Amino acid sequence: MARGILTHMDNNNPELDTVFLAFADSTRRAVLRRLGEGPASVSDLAAPFDMALPPFMKHIRTLENAGLITTEKVGRVRICELNPEKYAAVEDWLKDQRRHWASRYRKLDQLLEQMKDKDR
Amino acid sequence: MKPDLHYSFQADMQTSRLTIRREFDAPRDLVWDCYTWAELLDQWFAPEPFTAKTKSMAFEEGGHWHFAMVDPEGNEHWSRFDYETITPKDGYQARDAFSDPDGGINRDLPASTWDVTFEDASQRTLVQTVLTYETPEALQQVIDMGMQQGMEATLSGLDKLLAKLTGATAK
Fold it and tell me: B125 and B158 share a domain?
């Protein structure tokens, strides 16, 4: 499921723009994409970025606070892992919301057509 | 929906905000009426398969709309929109909360504020709704509720399937 979202993010699929925007920061997005391949240590995750550790840790904490990843200290290394359940929950909710709004607005289109017919 | 009617739905989880923009092929007066008269709201506000049922409506600053979303089994899910500011035909701001059948607000469930604006777009009307959950926790709570409902729906689907299968074996 999580892998699926990451793929959609890569493709910039308009259906899932919403999810794309949910993770609006490019560093965090790259971290999530990397974690889609499996757990990794903070230092491994940080390696591709030209960024000091404190600001990088801030991104990790943001993702952790959002529940999108979990972290665990193993000896002196902090290991990060994707939380696929949370991913799926956010994705499902956004899809539901999008569908609800589309549905009510289709009804409003019909109502407006009826009202315009009456005016004529 | 006509294929060229603009529709966009954006979510920003950082600010707990949804922004929905939609064009309607009708003059602004008509669209405004559909948003502000209970008898018209009842005809469109609930998404399928729900229907909306108004108990009371006072579209004025400090007033509120008290209504239910009724599901196909007849269960009523009550809500209340409290109107905070209204600029006729341009927009309104309201607070959306879950309520009981008597209009009492349920403060344990997440509330959101709605900022709805209406503008002319050639012969059409563009409506923008910015829906903000009061806290990130409130947004988290609605997502969790959605997950729960999804699971319940799945389980009830499973019940039906099992009933069918058991019925089939019984025969």
Answer: no
To the nearest whole Å, the CA of B47 is away from the closest chain A CA by 4
Query: For every one of its 171 residues, what pLDDT tens digit does chain B have, with 9 covering 90 and above?
Result: 566 888 888 887 767 888 999 999 999 999 999 999 999 999 999 998 999 999 999 999 999 999 999 999 999 999 999 999 999 999 999 999 999 999 999 988 889 999 999 999 988 999 999 999 987 778 878 877 765 665 565 556 666 666 666 665 444
- Quote the pTM value: 0.73
SS3 for chain B is CCCCCCEEEEEECCCCEEEEEEEECCCHHHHHHHHHCHHHHHHHCCCCCCEEEEEEECCCCCCEEEEEEECCCCCEEEEEEEEEEEECCCEEEEEEEEECCCCCECCCCCCEEEEEEEEEECCEEEEEEEEEECCHHHHHHHHHHHHHHHHHHHHHHHHHHHHHHHHHHHC
The residue of B28, B31, B33, B48 whose CB has the most chain A CBs within 10 angstroms, and thus the best one to mutate to test that interface, is B48
Task: Look at residue B146 and tell me if it is in a domain.
Answer: yes
Mutate to test the interface with A, among B14, B25, B31 (most CBs of A within 10 A): B14
Do B11 and A94 make contact, defined as CB atoms within 8 angstroms?
yes
**d(CA B169, nearest CA chain A) in Å:** 34
Q: Which residues from chain B sit within 8 angstroms of residue A96, using beta carbons?
A: 146, 150
- Please name the fold of domain A2-119: Arc Repressor Mutant, subunit A (1.10.10)
